[in-house]
Structures are given as structure tokens and as C-alpha cells.
Specification:
The protein has seven helices and 22 strands. It has about 525 residues and is mainly beta. Helix 5 packs antiparallel against helix 6. About 50% of the residues are buried.
Length: about 525
């Protein structure tokens, strides 16, 4: 049951599961619109004892140890004839293959990674219909995404004009296969995980790996089994540190990169034993959970600023890491991804410099929230919708004469999100713009704030999400990427000072919104 607080929801998760519709979304590098009828599925159960070995509990590792580096590069196909593709594999013109290797291969390699819907490594990959919608050919989809002003491909770094011209000219000429010596296959680079530069600098940092596994129990070493479709897996751990500790960095340790979409790490109040594995629905209503950290496609590993650390559970306290998987194959897959958490003793940092993450945003999308009295109509099709709200923080635990200090923003929407803006509405009536960036579902990055933004008593935070519903149906709030969200995740210290406790449909308690979009619209208007 949720704690008593304004607007608290006390709905059981079984009831919420019956109310939610979770369409499958391709949502990843090069994603295309997906079917609204597919559902989130439970993991495939297996009674097999294969690989069921004793597993050591989470243990420290060398702080910041870098992953192995892979190679990359466009290669001539090998076969019986030098310079020709292997049997039954048609190559690409080598200049086209080089561009694809430079800009696309990390996601659209063979096999595809990070949830990308298809490979783009040889000629056959371009000649068929797009694998999800099956209503547009792959070559036409590639051209459209390259020129999509709102969500261009590639998402992180634009192509040079010369590279883009090579692809566009080839597509316009019919996307013909390479011939003879001018026939190349794009080599998929080895995908490394965890930023080798993301090393905690504190001399007392100790790092722990919290790995996914297939069966409940702290000694399990089997891999987590993932059936076809969109799946949430929940993995419970007892905090492994032996003394009160705070987090100084985290990084993603990906195993099957083609299956991963995001993870969220929560502090929970549950009683699940260490090592418990369960399926989820992407919401934790009634669970009284607090978000500690997270990562999504295109996101970065995080090292907190020097002198700052983030709150973590007490030794033996409950941690739950929720992984969101997209298995776009037709067969069961296995995964052993994890999260590396680096901590220092709490005694090594001033209490006022211990930070936490706060959810700022709005769950009332298009005039209706998921469980609101207005129904679940959601945002109208083929239209732009702006969603706004205001956060009035309670400033709990704020020392006298000190502000709350914000050092990071991480915007989060889904496939229809196009832009996010955030303001600070000062007590004296001034409005200060602090975030104004286009949003791409494929590249959910964090924005470090320098100088830090200060929130004083009487100040408010205003947030606005812009969506364009390019589908033919209304879209409302929900955890599936065919539904939508509007969150600005704010890292600030001291911990929980921004929280005002208004309930969330995710079940999180470290939230701040007032459900007053009209007030938000007025304040946003002042900043224009």
C-alpha cells in the first residue's frame, strides 16, 4: 500500500495490469511505427537446469576497469573469388558500405543492436519491406529517416553533407548492388558497454556488479530467458555494501545489446529475498518505490560531480533493477546484462551534498490520464500536443540559507516526443529558461548543468513536453513505447528536497508536479 500523501493511489498491480494496454514498440535506432495490437509479454518460462551453477553474490570489482575494445571497419567480402561476396550474399557499393559502417553499423549491424528493427549490412537488407509495418520498403524508409528533421538518423551525430549525398544518390539511382571489386559488406563493430572514462575518482570507491539472472536466488548464474516481444524483467538485490554508502557513479554492462531498451534502479520497501526474479508491467503502484538511477538508448554512464554523491539504500536494503527488453526475433533469447554501481562510505561526504533523482513532468496527456475520470482518450492523431505542468517543491531537509542545487537533467519521452523545455519560475516573478532541447527517442542523453541551477523557497520548476502523434489513433500515457510519457529526471541536492509527493502512475514516490497545466502555460508564456 502506498504511503498516505496527497493524491496517493492505492491500486493493486494486478488491477493496473488489467487496465494497461502495452503495444509493442520497435523504438530504437532507426525505429519505425509499430503495430498498436501487440502486447508486452511475460518472459518464457523454462524448467531447464542448463547452466544452473552457484553464483557468488554481488561483489566488488576494480573501480572503472575499462571494457575490452573491439575493432571496426568496412571489409571486402571473403569467398572463393577474391573481392566478391560469399555465396548468396549480395554486397553494396564500397563507398555506400563505408558510410553505413561509419554512421549506422553500431545499431544496424548483423545482428542489429540496441533494439534496431533491421540490419543494414548488405544489399538484401535494402530490397525488402520494412520488417514491422511492412508498408514501406527499407530503402524508402532509410531515405525518409535521413531527412526527418524532428528525428533524423543517425541520432547522435549528423552525417557530413558528402556522406549523406553518397547514400541519397545511391538510393535515388535504384539502390543497386555492388559489382566485382566494388562490392563490400558492412562489418559490424564489436559493441562495447560501459564507458571506460566513467571512472570514479574518489579513493574510497568500491564498485559492485548487479547482474540479471534466470532463476530466483542469490547464487544463480543462469541467463534470463526472454521470449519474443516487449518484456519487463525485475531483479531484486540486497544492497551488498557493509556500511552506509552513497553512489558516485554507475554504468551499464550490456550482454545482448540487440534486446535492451532501458533499465531503472529503484529503492523498494518490499520483502523480496535477495536474488528474486519476476516479470513486471512497467509500473509499481502501491510499491512505494524511489528511483535511484537509470539508463536508456543513447544514454550515458554517469559519474557524479566531485564532492557530490547520490543516496542509496542502507546495507542489506532492497534494490530492484527493472529491465525493459525488446526481442524482435521469433525465438527465445537469453541475457546476462547488469549495472555497475560504485559507492563510497556515507561518512566521506557532507550530508547536504548527498543528491537524489526527482521525477518532474506530467502524466495527464492530451486531457486524460491513464486512470483519470476523463478516460484514456489520449493525444489526438496527426496533431501536435503540448503537455505542461508545474513542480512546487516541499524543500524537505533544506538547510536554512541554502538552495537546492540542480546538476543534471535527463528528458524522457517515447517515440512521439519531439521537444522538451524546462523553466525556473522565480518567487519574484522572473522566469529563467534552463532546458530547451529537441528530443530523440533513440538518443536519450543526460545534460550536465554548469553552472548549477539554484532553487530557493518560493521558486517553482515548469516543464513542457511537445509530441507529434503521427499515428492514426489517440495515444495516452503508459509504459510501453507505443504509449507516451513526459518526464524530466532531475538530479539535485540535498536529497529529496524537490519532492512534493504527488502520486505517480509508475508507483514512484520521489516526484514533483502540481497537476496544474494552466499555471504552467502561463509561466511558460512569460518566458517567450
Amino acid at each position: 500500500m502506498a504511503e498516505d500523501r496527497p493524491g496517493a493511489l492505492t491500486i493493486r498491480r494486478s488491477v493496473l495490469a488489467a487496465l494497461l494496454t502495452f503495444p509493442l514498440a520497435v523504438g530504437a535506432c532507426g525505429s519505425e511505427p509499430s503495430s498498436p495490437t501487440d502486447k508486452i509479454k511475460d518472459p518464457v518460462e523454462s524448467d531447464s537446469d542448463e547452466g544452473d551453477e552457484d553464483k557468488e553474490p554481488a561483489k566488488p570489482r576494480d573501480a572503472g576497469k575499462p571494457p575490452a575494445k573491439g575493432d571496426a571497419g568496412v571489409t571486402k567480402p571473403t569467398g572463393t573469388d577474391a573481392g566478391k561476396p560469399p555465396a548468396k550474399q549480395a554486397g553494396l557499393p564500397c563507398n555506400v558500405a563505408k558510410v553505413l559502417e561509419t554512421h549506422c553499423a553500431e545499431c544496424h549491424g548483423s545482428p542489429p543492436n540496441w533494439g534496431a528493427p533491421m540490419s543494414l549490412v548488405d544489399h538484401d537488407d535494402f530490397v525488402g519491406m520494412a520488417p514491422v509495418t511492412k508498408s514501406i520498403k527499407v530503402d524508402a524508409l532509410v531515405k525518409a529517416r535521413m531527412n526527418d528533421k524532428a528525428k533524423p538518423m543517425p541520432p547522435k551525430k549528423p552525417m557530413s553533407a558528402a556522406d549523406k549525398a553518397i547514400l541519397e544518390d545511391w538510393l535515388a539511382a535504384g539502390a543497386e548492388a555492388g559489382e566485382g571489386d566494388d562490392s563490400c559488406i558492412v562489418k559490424t563493430p564489436e559493441v562495447t558497454t560501459g564507458d571506460e572514462n566513467n571512472k570514479p575518482t574518489h579513493p574510497d570507491a568500491v564498485c559492485y556488479e548487479l547482474r540479471n539472472h534466470g532463476k530466483s536466488g542469490p547464487a544463480d548464474k543462469t541467463k534470463y530467458k526472454i521470449g519474443p516481444g516487449e518484456i519487463y524483467g525485475e531483479f531484486y538485490f540486497d544492497a551488498p555494501w557493509k556500511e552506509p554508502s552513497v553512489m558516485v557513479s554507475f554504468r551499464t554492462l550490456a550482454d545482448q545489446t540487440r534486446l535492451l531498451h532501458h533499465w531503472l534502479m529503484y529503492k523498494t520497501q518490499g520483502s523480496e529475498p535477495d536474488g528474486t526474479v519476476s516479470s513486471g508491467i512497467g509500473s509499481h503502484i502501491g510499491g512505494n518505490v524511489q528511483l535511484l538511477a537509470g539508463w536508456a538508448l543513447g544514454g550515458s554512464d554517469i559519474t557524479l560531480p566531485d564532492g557530490i554523491a547520490a543516496t542509496m539504500p542502507a546495507p542489506g536494503g532492497k534494490i530492484m533493477i527493472e529491465w525493459h527488453y525488446y526481442n524482435q526475433t521469433e525465438t527465445q533469447q537469453e541475457d546476462n546484462s547488469g549495472v555497475e554501481v560504485c559507492v563510497i562510505p556515507s561518512s566521506k561526504i557532507e550530508p547536504k551534498n548527498v543528491a537524489s533523482m526527482t521525477w518532474v513532468g506530467n502524466e495527464n496527456l492530451g486531457g486524460s490520464s491513464l486512470l483519470g475520470v476523463a478516460g484514456i482518450a489520449g493525444m489526438a492523431p496527426m496533431k501536435e500536443t503540448k503537455v505542461q505542468d508545474t513542480c512546487t517543491p516541499k524543500l524537505t531537509g533544506l538547510p536554512a540559507g541554502e538552495p537546492v542545487r540542480i546538476f543534471s537533467f535527463t528528458p524522457h519521452m517515447h517515440q512521439l516526443g519531439t521537444h522538451m523545455r524546462t523553466w525556473i519560475a522565480r518567487k519574484d516573478g522572473k522566469v529563467e529558461k534552463v532546458h530547451d532541447e529537441a528530443f530523440q527517442f533513440d538518443s536519450q542523453i543526460s545534460y550536465r548543468q554548469e553552472p548549477l541551477h539554484e532553487i530557493w523557497p518560493g521558486d517553482k520548476i515548469v516543464n513542457e513536453c511537445t509530441f507529434f502523434n503521427s499515428t492514426t489513433s489517440p495515444v495516452g500515457f503508459g509504459p510501453s513505447s507505443n504509449q507516451e510519457m513526459c518526464y524530466q529526471f532531475v538530479y539535485a541536492y540535498p536529497a529529496n528536497a524537490l519532492v512534493n509527493g504527488v502520486s505517480s502512475l509508475t508507483g514512484a514516490t520521489n516526484t514533483c508536479w502540481d497537476n496544474k497545466p494552466a499555471d504552467a502555460a502561463r509561466l511558460i508564456g512569460l518566458a517567450k
